[in-house]
Amino acid sequence: MDAYDKVTGRAKFTDDLCPKPCLEAKVLHSTIANGVVTAIDTSEAEKIEGVVGVWTCFDVPDIQFGTAGHPWSTRQSHQDIQDRKLLNARVRCYGDNIAAVVAEDTVAADRALRAIKVTYDEYPPCLDTESALHPGKTGELHQERPDNVIAHMDLRSKVRGERYQSIEQILDDPSLHHITQHSATPRQSQVHIESCTSWCKMENGRITCVTSTQIPHIVRRIIAQALGIGWGQVKVIKPYIGGGFGNKQDVLFEPLNAWLCMQVGGRPVRLELSREEVFFATRSRQPKTFDVEAAYDDHQNLVARHCVAYSNQGGYASHGNALVANSVNSFRQLYDMRELASRVEATTFYSNQITAGAMRAYGVPEGNWAAECLMGDIAYDQGWDGCDFRLNNAMTKGYVDEFWPGKLACYTDGLRECVRRGKADIGWDQKRAEYAHQEGPIRHGIGVALFSYKTAVAALSLETASARMILNQDGSVMMELGATEIGQGADTIFSQMAAQAIGIPTEWVHVVSTQNTDTSPYDSGAYASRQTYVSGTAVRMVGEELGEKIVAYAHEMRPDAGDLRLVDGRIVDAAGEQVLSLEEVAQESYYSLDHAQQLFAEDTAQVKSNTFALGCCFVDLTVDVPLCKVTLDRVVEYHDSGMIMNPRTAEQQVHGGIAQSLGMALSEELLTDPASGRILNPNLLDYKIPTAMDLPDLEAGFVETYDPTGPYGNKALGECPCIPAAPAVRDAILNATGVKFYEAPMTPQRLFEGFKREGLI
Amino acid sequence: MDAYDKVTGRAKFTDDLCPKPCLEAKVLHSTIANGVVTAIDTSEAEKIEGVVGVWTCFDVPDIQFGTAGHPWSTRQSHQDIQDRKLLNARVRCYGDNIAAVVAEDTVAADRALRAIKVTYDEYPPCLDTESALHPGKTGELHQERPDNVIAHMDLRSKVRGERYQSIEQILDDPSLHHITQHSATPRQSQVHIESCTSWCKMENGRITCVTSTQIPHIVRRIIAQALGIGWGQVKVIKPYIGGGFGNKQDVLFEPLNAWLCMQVGGRPVRLELSREEVFFATRSRQPKTFDVEAAYDDHQNLVARHCVAYSNQGGYASHGNALVANSVNSFRQLYDMRELASRVEATTFYSNQITAGAMRAYGVPEGNWAAECLMGDIAYDQGWDGCDFRLNNAMTKGYVDEFWPGKLACYTDGLRECVRRGKADIGWDQKRAEYAHQEGPIRHGIGVALFSYKTAVAALSLETASARMILNQDGSVMMELGATEIGQGADTIFSQMAAQAIGIPTEWVHVVSTQNTDTSPYDSGAYASRQTYVSGTAVRMVGEELGEKIVAYAHEMRPDAGDLRLVDGRIVDAAGEQVLSLEEVAQESYYSLDHAQQLFAEDTAQVKSNTFALGCCFVDLTVDVPLCKVTLDRVVEYHDSGMIMNPRTAEQQVHGGIAQSLGMALSEELLTDPASGRILNPNLLDYKIPTAMDLPDLEAGFVETYDPTGPYGNKALGECPCIPAAPAVRDAILNATGVKFYEAPMTPQRLFEGFKREGLI
Prior knowledge:
The structure is a homodimer of 761-residue chains. Chain A is 28% helix and 25% strand. Chain A is of the alpha+beta class. At the A-B interface, strand 9, strand 18, strand 19, helix 16 and strand 25 of A face strand 9, strand 18, strand 19, helix 16 and strand 25 of B.
């Protein structure tokens, strides 16, 4: 529904709405990764014409706050680590925010930044796992956590069956096959089109922040927490946004922008990051490592797995341990059907790397990489069919996560059909046979990966969504949600859902696309593929409630007409004959001299269930061994996301997700200078995302099942496509060359090292 | 609550919010008052650089619509006369809208206007009552009403008592005193500071109109009606506005602006009127005449009154007969306590004068002028004390309007106390004695006038108001209303009312001051002094509902705490001890893992009762007879408006209203050239409103009574102060000079003619 406006430029984004002229804020970032700011001389900067003011880490409120866009709850354990200030004197990563300038224009602001003189006490940076976990005095980044460990999770399943007492016993059993692996995933950047940008102003003593965010209501909370003011003193407005992919699920510069606005008497202040700043001063997918040990039997059954994961979080906790916990849980869940025991451990630690955070699929692509490296190697080593072996162990309908009994389960069985169709489409059996014995420089490979992805954040965290619907005088309905359109097509899907729930044509539903925390019903926002599932539940509930109110009012108008229903915008009787048009009911409800009542419905849905979306990806590719170059020939992906709400937008989601996963597979990695901790490639020339030229036609298919926990049988789709393509590429390269890679991305450099090690070149 | 932002310039008005650059629309007005546009040549205009397009009366949709900001209802008789198009080929008044230009800037737009060549078939204008009511062929302005009569009302009371059979019999009874009068009131202009301005854009196929209006939801309706589109296709936004005084209770240029925006593909188009256009191309108070015949006895009792009023509406019906009906009803009601019979007639007719409409107090100042000319003359002729005679006949508690039994009554008895205090303040008895026998050129006079004003528009018309309140996480409450802040302090009053209803401090209530018809609850807007009464009823109802929901949630949190109440932002038990803070309840309601539910309340109040506000004005003045100059020495006004919600804003309302009434008394009149129908003084040099230099300190007092029909014992105040000062000045001039004036304003010219006629000069 927003396509036309976006294509024609009519759609308004944060910066379009900024009053001009507007004061411009710029942030001074540290040029060291570890140390302490001992002094800042702003005197020269303040003399520059057009500079309104300079504020440093010594001026800001002494309030620690966390930035993660988590739903929060009144339970303490659901509240994020509060480990930073608006500007920080203790520098924990390269590019840390240490001062800010407000000026009449960007030229003056930039000149002022260059004129600020900072004196540091610099320490050697702790960048890798080893140095970060053994910090010494100068590597202790936060006093509260001297060992730099943010959190550690250790989930041991119950040991199933009678034969073994412990997982260690299984992993030591010589009658089983054993395998160990060390795999790793890269620091990937979200690379949304629109920068991180916001602007603030004051009205009636309250602060308004217009920002490009996925989570306006959470921005409200975090601004208030960071500034130590009442949450109701903050109004956050979210217009259309140009992508987020998890980076805008952190609240990074809005609190500083709000505070700077207050320092200049409430005049509008804009704070827009450059592309370079987005790369190094916002969030990215953490680099993670996985040490996996597994045992399996001769009958293609996994018997036990143990996974130890580390996540290098960087200077600040942000989303904490939630991401890598999600990695190892997804590692465990997908192939947990037959194994007798599992143990997953996840540790997140501070370092002087730049701070990481959420990125599409929130840790699952990393865990899935580890899981599929394991499955691919076993199948390869044993000569088993990769699809058969995976399906033999993969989640089926009825699977219940033993750690969240009754709350997290698999309710559909579309995965097998996904694999069946994917195999048929890609020509799995023929290609496997065809590619069996290849020699020479150019080799073909076919690979597969499966995935599971739990929907939303229940039962681990709070899941609520609210909706409001108002009947207009012409029978159309205005829907207001706290759930956000972030380019994924949410508004379109919600209007379809509302139309069905109310009983009117989809075109009669108007969605208020812009969230305003003063007035939009509460919803925590767009992340975790939660909105069609959780917010959709609210939409259905409220839509049905509005429909009932409409029918009740129609009864008042035609008390003798018997049973009435609202069908396709018409009030019909038991025989299906139209008794009233919806417009007639609407007009009467607004303008009756007897009983005028604006018909509306509003409610909050709290969702406590959770379900798994599943799917698979097949990749057919060509490897030019001497050139260490991979050419993707076909990518076919199938999804069991329950019922598909809109096939066209669903397909677009899958295309985008595959592209991001292929970037992780082959090219995307933010590189850190090991001496300074500086990001080496914070630009789109050196950080390579796949473009249309790099991709084959992407093929997306859906196996529609009805998930009983979703409002319309639906479940997660938004993030799923970002998961399986990378390991499927890895599996195809293994098929083509017999070389096992464990580190993504599989750049030409890594391919070269692997091929050389295995004697191919 | 908005004072600081308005004083500092932070408050945003319509034009502040307009995106720049924006296309500029300008309207071509007719240069004749009566005739037909036979051709328009736009070719030269279209060649001008920067002109985007020119549209004429031959291009617009063939849809007739009405502009009045009436509440409307589904009952046909409540729907206004639809007698104009966006641009009109049949020219009915000087300055009629016949073409429009859209250009890249105002310079190009102005040049284009001058380059348009119009050919008219011109007719002689019908400007006065006589020629308008005997129109002939070329004076027939609307085919549907060949006699130019828009409507005629004739209300005959039942004849009370046994003695007379009819009012005619009373008026013929030689045993009574008889008096006849012809009085007249002028065309007054509202003179709001901010011009009539709007701008439109399209989003997602829908039209957005940001406009300076009193009545956003009615603007939505009328744009949709004028354009023939679904009402839900229109979004109207009302920011802060710089005054309206009834002129912005008509929907004049918004529909044209919306249509022009659609013609240019939805690009933003602004349409701002010049001050001159506001004077001649928007609305004004109609000139009215009153022919009054009355009989009274020796005991200071009115026995019967007959009033025949005519209202010269101009080219289009706008508010129709409602204004002059209000005039004669108020004439009747105020002094209807003892008389045995009354008859009031009101006729509104089309003419080639500019179109009139609503202005503060909506016809009552005119009817009150006629009523007080009558009362003043009788008291003067008989030598009765003006206060005693008036009070002897004036409305008291218990008065019921016989035409709306049970729905329109007087519930308080503050008027007598108002007069008592006013007399004491001004020194009535001493001054009357002191001024009794004056001679010479400089004379002093003291005068009085009483008034009544019914609150809101029930039971004549629909009265509904909706409110929505949301509990924020910090215990503050966000209130959203369709009722509008138009400079009168509504937001402040509503926040006080909400705070009391909920049980929190006033500072905890945040009001969404900007209405957006997509999302703001339905309310017909600011007019008829209805908002504290009708919208206030909704605020109280919804506030109490929210309070109950909060207490119910607190019960869930502390089930063992017994009876709980919300007092001053704290949840207290039966002993008054705090059990929970409101913030604790709010946080839990948003973020409970067990039961998360955003607490809100929303509802519509339909008000079917009505009540009278009453009051009086005393004026002490000096007349320089040879110079025909009146100097106001003191103005004292007392109001019984029930309970006063905010003494400071109430006093400010009274000051402003007195000033407008004094303008009507002495200087304000839009003058028409009798040959062409052109307005002669459409500017602030030639149209004289009183400035601070022209006014003495204005003294306002309140007699607080509790009106049982108002939400907090309150009733109308906003318009009342605009009523009695003019006739009180007239009464004081009569007291000073013995000369009876019947036409307002009493300009030096009119004073000269009167003094000369009576031989004073």
